[in-house]
Amino acid sequence: MTEPVPHPEARLQGLCVDGPAGPLISGLDLTVESGERLGIVGPSGSGKTLTAGALLGLPLPGLRVSGDRYLSPRTGALLQESASALNPLMRVGRQYDLALRGAGVPRAERRERIDRQLKELALDADTRRAWPLHLSGGQRQRAALGLALVTEPELVVADEPTAALDALTQNEILLMLRRILDARATALILISHDLALVARLCERVVVLGGGRIVEEGPTADILAEPQHPTSARLVDAARTLGVTA
């Protein structure tokens, strides 16, 4: 029997983002295969969040985007300040239900899917009836993550998903995310300035500097022997936090 041919979940070819003062991203190429976990890292101003926005097709006012883009139609997004993804005027369960309805999940299955997703994120079933503002910061972050995962996407794009959390809560959420991705074989694009965080989830890394890819390769290789000064600075920071190859 012929093995199924893997298909990419995301692809950028020749991505350029130009602003009034000149180019912000220049000719960026990347591909994420089915089940792969790619980290996009770089210092502030390197183009990470612009890359995420362009990939997801988000509005980038005042900027001109060019290049080819493909994104799996089954993609979940978890962006910076992700707790704001929850509508404060709508109960959590209702928001999950709308996401599942939009994905074509039959009404008879939606309640069970919601409760299962909440349980995976260590949230009580009563969270379904909760208003976002009645949850703690960590609970809101997990509920926002659940909103990205409840439709069981093939790819999750996460841009600095735990930046606003304390170290303990960040660790808990990363462990939950890794467990769910493992169980579902879900692809991931994780965007962060923190190589230590990316190293915990991603087997491959792209390093951005000045809107360009300055280095890419297996995470372990870049941690062991970074070839570009930008990568070396990120590795030094990661080692300060106890992450080594």
Automatic annotation (TrEMBL):
Q: Which Pfam families match?
A: ABC_tran (PF00005)
Q: How does it sit in the membrane?
A: Peripheral membrane protein
Task: Tell me which residues make up the ABC transporter domain.
Answer: 10-235
The record's subcellular locations are: Cell membrane
| Molecular function terms from GO | ATP binding
Q: Which SUPFAM superfamilies match?
A: P-loop containing nucleoside triphosphate hydrolases (SSF52540)
Q: Which PROSITE patterns match?
A: ABC_TRANSPORTER_1 (PS00211), ABC_TRANSPORTER_2 (PS50893)
Q: Has UniProt tagged this entry with the keyword Transport?
A: yes
Q: Which UniProt keywords apply?
A: ATP-binding, Cell inner membrane, Cell membrane, Membrane, Nucleotide-binding, Translocase, Transport
Family matches, as PANTHER family: ATPASE AAA-TYPE CORE DOMAIN-CONTAINING PROTEIN, OLIGOPEPTIDE TRANSPORT ATP-BINDING PROTEIN APPD
Task: State the similarity comment.
Answer: Belongs to the ABC transporter superfamily.
Protein name per its UniProtKB record: ATP-binding cassette domain-containing protein
The record lists the lineage as:
Bacteria, Bacillati, Actinomycetota, Actinomycetes, Mycobacteriales
